[in-house]
Each structure stands twice: as structure tokens, then as C-alpha cells.
Amino acid sequence: MIEQIQQLIAEGNTEEALALLAQQSSDALLLQARYNAGKKQYNMGLIEFSEWQRTQAQINYAALELAKSVGKTSGGGQAAGGGGNNLANPQSPQVGNNLQKVFISYNHNDREYADRIYAFLKNGGLDPVIDVVNMKVGEKIKDFILNQIRENNTVLSLVSKNSLRSGWVGLESDLALYSQLLTNQKFIPVSIDNAVFDDDFFFEVMDEIENKIADLDKKIEKAKDRKFGYKQFQTQRDRLEEQHQNLPKIIEHFQGVLNQDIGEGRFESGMQKVVDTIKS
Question: DSSP label at 195?
Fold first, then answer.
């Protein structure tokens, strides 16, 4: 049941997850009431979209915690610490004879956080995969990303101002959400800032993309006038155009699912929840 609820919440089906959870615990009725009240307020225009999304994220988190507690009490009475998943005594999940793999998606401006995530997952009995360690010299970035998403059980995406602005998190999350590559895999977003909920940041990035596209249009015209090749400019423009189209739906999705906060002061506790989720 826990995995089913986690899957429903990851797909944005909070109402279905709460209905399933209510069959196991009456405490879920309170979450259902809060969800219905928030949805009604949003539909009536009484609260902003960002506030409604934050409410959903809080409810999703509470539902996941409740599902875990219900699972423990219904799992033969096992104590919470029995066979636990804490870092002091990690129980490493296995896929065949190999440790469970986790592909870390991040922007290189967030390298410090990515390294900390890598070390935490490693110490937690998992097999993290990251470009600076696993990517071959001369390998194309896009090919590396596609191969890792196909081959790994879990994709952990580090969401931040840097990753949203760069577009690479857009590529990876878009593949994870809208293709068949991750049909049987997990996609876990973690955040180090509140950029995904910042409407001003969204418009700022969209303006930046539009300005870059306009600048590339000028370069393309200049190259055409001088009868130069301009494929390099067109390639950049196509990528920016795709980012411009995808960013709104990517942000909307991230706002609708639980983004585990691992910002300063919350890294250890946040990452432990990530490890527990991957192992569950």
C-alpha cells in the first residue's frame, strides 16, 4: 500500500492517495478535509496558486508519513527501529547482486550540494551515479543523461534556481514525466531553495530566455547576410525555444508534487527521508 500511495502522490493524484489511505487510517480523513477545503478556496479564487501548491505539498508529506506509520503497525508489529534504514546501520537494498542505483541530476553551479548528496547516498547503502564520476571523456551530455535514466532505478533531481534556469533539469524531468523511460522507476525531486514556488523568478527566467532567443535571431540574420553557416546559433535557439515551452509545465509539476527540502539546516533530515523513500 505504501508504494501505491507514494506512486499516486508522485503522479499528482493526491485525492486518490488520500482515499486509499483513509481505508487504513481514520487520521487520513483530516487530511482529506484539509485538501478539499484548500481546493475549494483555490477554485473560488480565495487563495493564490502558489499557496494552494504549498498546501498540497504539506498534505502530500503528511500523507507519506502517515502511510509509513500505518505500514509499520500493519506489518506484523515490527518495531520502528527493527531492520531499520538509518545511516548508522544501513540495510542496502539489492537489485540482483548490485546496490540500488540512483542517478543524480543537477546543475554544475550546485556542485557542492550534489557532492554532499552523493556522499550521503553512498553512506546510506545506495549506489549513486553522477557525471563527474561516471561520465566518460568525450561522451555527449544528452546521451549520458538518457543512458543513466534508462539504466538506473531512481532519478534524483536537484531543483534550484540554477537548474531551472539552465534547462538541463527541464530535459531530465521532461523525459521522466512524459516519456516511457521511467515507467517502472522512481523520480525524486529535492530542492535547496524556493525558486520553484517563486512567481517573480519564473517571469525573470522567461524574460531571460526570450532575450537570448532575440539575440540569436540577430546573429542568424547576420550570418545569413554574410553567407556564413549558422547551424550553431540555430541549435542554441532550438534548445532555448524548447526550454521556453517546457518550463511552465515543468514548474507546474514540481509545484504539484512533494519536493523534499534539503536546504541549509535541513540537509541531514531531508536526505534521510530521501534514502528511506528510495529503499521503501
Answer: G
Task: For residue 249, count CB atoms less than 10 angstroms from its CB and return exposed for 0-12, middle for 13-18, buried for 19 or more.
Answer: middle
**How many whole angstroms from its chain centre is CA 24?**
28
Q: Where are the beta strands (DSSP E) in the chain?
A: 94-95, 98-99, 101-105, 127-129, 154-159, 186-191, 260-261
Q: Could you tell me the strand order of the sheet in which 101-105 lies?
A: 127-129, 101-105, 154-159, 186-191, 260-261
Residue whose grid cell is 500505518: 70
Domain boundaries, the chain: 2-73, 94-196+248-279
- Measured in degrees and rounded to the nearest 5, phi and psi for residue 46 equal -85, -20
- pLDDT per residue over 222-260, tens digit each? 999 999 999 999 999 988 988 888 888 888 878 887 789
C-alpha to C-alpha distance for 212 and 242, rounded to whole angstroms = 13
Instruction: List own/partner pairs for 47-53 with CB under 8 A and 24 or more apart.
Output: 49/255, 50/197, 50/199, 50/255, 53/197, 53/255, 53/256
Q: Where are the beta strands (DSSP E) in 17-88?
A: none
Cα torsion angle, 275, 261, 207, 246, sign:
positive
What whole-number distance in Å separates Cα of residue 274 and Cα of residue 280? 10
CA distance 136 to 227: 37
Q: What is the pTM of this model?
A: 0.58
Q: Are 67 and 21 in contact (CB under 8 A)?
A: yes
Class of domain 94-196+248-279: alpha beta
